[in-house]
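pasting for the record
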Amino acid sequence: MSWSRDAAAVALADFRERSRTSKLVVIPVVLAYFAKLVTVDSTLVVGNTYTGVPTAAWYGGLVAGIGTTVLLLFGYPLVHGSIAYDRTTNVAEFVASAPLSNSSYLVGKWLSNFTLLAVVTTLLFGATAVSFLLQGTGPFNLVDMALPFILLTLPTMAVVAAAGVCFETLGPLRGTGGTALYFLLAIAGVIGSIPPESPVDLTGLVALRQSMASSIAGQYPGFEGPIGSFAYTDTATGMEMFRWAGLSVGPALVSRLPIFVIIGGLLVVSVLSFDRFDDTQAWSFGLFDHGSSDAEATAELPSTQLTEMSRSSSDSGPSLASVTASGFRLQRAFIAELKMALRGRRRHWYVGCIAALVGTTVAPLGSLRPTVVPIALLLPLPVWSQSGAREQIHRTQELIFATSNPLRLLAVSYLAGVSVGTAVISPALVRYALVGSSIGLVGAVTAVLFLPAAALAAGVWSGRPSLFEIGYLVAWYLGPMNGLGLLDYVGATQAPGSIAIQIGYLTAAVIALVIASIGRRRQLA
């Protein structure tokens, strides 16, 4: 087989495997709601004064603009884990010994990632088309509506696909550390697309703003560009309407050229760093590292919940003790789950925990809620993100579910997650209680109750840690750190005497636990 056929075969096999999961069924529903939210429930304000006539081109630019940004942040969990899946299903042994070049294997994985994200983009386009047919104005112009998705969204999805491959080939970036780094880079990409003359338009917003500015200037001679920002409002009252003709192919392609350089660079790094599944040289990424692959494999042995490890004096290594019918013991299961959650953590992680304890002890009381507690609660991220997904990652569902009560183990996982979160910020909780700061105490307690519950629900249904990791990092950045009240799970910006947000998140914690339980029951079916 030629190099291109090898890559195409890898891509086809990988995409077929992914398309079989029923979890993808929820994606069209989410995208349809997103398209409705953007096109029907809100209005895009351009330059603080103008908004577009709802033509097919406007709908395409409207949804593709914000959709590209959202998929840049949340597309990574959809594609991350493909190479890790080959490791856990013994496909790695076949790949390592097959006459398949590293480049063809990795390009095939990239093509599979890109195809999946292209399908998501197509579904988003379809939802946009339906929304236009219900609410839009003028004829349905397929080309004008599709061009923003083709010229803006798809190139960015190719970057996300390449990042998914690259981070999996770099040992220290395979776990939570890679997800955190990707989030930081994605945020930097979004921020970098804000300046009107940004050299790297990762989200496509620069191309959109320049094209819309040209249309506004042609229709309103008094307009002084450039467009500094986009904003969304629930009403178009008092806005000046302009007709946008859509993207011009030439300028849009020129603005996307740096993206293709990024894609090539990520793939080159992937090929150069791919170890062909030889993990003997793995090293740590620090605070957010999950530990070495061997440590993870040992930590995931279900005997910590079902049996106890026994080491013989011979050189035969560890062996499993016999399973007994002594019943479920909450204390033993909790201690085993806690050990499993903490086993394999690097010393950097424990140093970070000590720093969090010191910080929440000595920091000024006024800085605890808005800064210190939210930062400290980042440390349990690798513990929380593994809960719910651990059995699927290591394919131990049958063994665990056959010998223990899965719902009880789910509850124990939640208790362990709450315990880790509480321990990290325990000095802050004590200080809040001593000074009678009910708003601070309730906010911190709400956070340690809600976040592990959300992690369980995301892990059970997605089967991978990255979904919760990205969602949590986005909520952390926009909520406590930037004052977006809806995502402020610790109440950092909450007015004194008001606990509405905390009540909402406590309710959400209960709902998340119910969703996790439903997902676990579904796994048993």
